[in-house]
Amino acid sequence: MLKNIDPLLNAEVLQALRAMGHGDRVVVCDTNFPADSVARETVLGKLLRIDNVPAPRAVAAILSVLPLDTFVDDAAMRMEIVGSPDELADVQREVQGEIDRAEGKSWPLGSIERMAFYEAAKQSYCVIQTGERRFYGCFIFRKGVIPPAAG
């Protein structure tokens, strides 16, 4: 156990998040996402897990250590609902709240069409599957930077 590190962040997840560089993307997905096959095509090449918790809780843990990229418009993206691209599922609203809390301000959550999401996920650094069972609990986050300490 480590101080000030969310206990959901297991060693494999922490190692991957630490290894990512500015601009690298992490996929956080639900239990229905083809996580293993997609993860095999990512930079890391294997699936990571944060089991037995819903996506918003996993996202809160991840964003407690991962800064979002402020240089791009697509630092936080959700999978669009098929046939209703502008609709937000409850899980997506909850994740939006976690993003806003982590960043300390309202942060835009963009969207990607379902099949395009799969392709973008394959180009990501890694995939982290959660225990989320609600549909459309799939997100992509782009890692930002931590500025130097003011001094």
UniProtKB/TrEMBL annotation:
GO biological process assignments: fucose metabolic process
InterPro entries (UniProt xref): RbsD-like_sf, RbsD/FucU_mutarotase, RbsD_FucU
Record field: catalytic activity: alpha-L-fucose = beta-L-fucose; beta-D-ribopyranose = beta-D-ribofuranose
Keywords: Isomerase
SUPFAM superfamilies recorded: RbsD-like (SSF102546)
GO molecular function: D-ribose pyranase activity; fucose binding; L-fucose mutarotase activity
Domain of life where this protein originates: Bacteria
Name by which UniProt lists this protein: Ribose ABC transporter
Upper lineage: Bacteria, Pseudomonadati, Pseudomonadota, Alphaproteobacteria, Hyphomicrobiales
